[in-house]
Amino acid sequence: MKTLLLLRHAKSSWDDGNLADFDRPLNSRGRRDAPRLGRLLAQHELTPDLVVTSAARRAATTAELVALAAEYGGDIQYSNELYLADPETFLDVARDTADAVTRLMLVGHNPGIEELVTDLAGREERMPTAALACFRLSIARWRELNDETAAELLHLWRPKEL
Question: Cα–Cα distance between 80 and 87 in angstroms, integer?
């Protein structure tokens, strides 16, 4: 069994209209919510073995703040592929994960992350900013993951519900 954590980046700032979308930082709410999610992961003993994040500033900062609060001890992998990725790209990144990794956290953007959560859950699920979904996957190796993999949604945390 593998555990897949899917995290949408925390709330970003639109204050500087001159910034490219890729470079937008977190706003104060985002900087507050991300560590809360990290502490939540630690409390539920769900600290990931590997964190892979979109290289976009808001996603990377979210991943860093969550990882720090969750006491994640590994390196964070930054992926340009996960910037505005579709569900299949998220699955491709997961399939490339080493089998020694039991809990994988992917950090990305909507609409792709929400579509993937909906696909895996088998029902529509909202993924507002800083929402975190935790799935148990019935696979032994990451390369076995596909859109027909049996996935059980164990938790779906949304910041406003915490």
Answer: 15
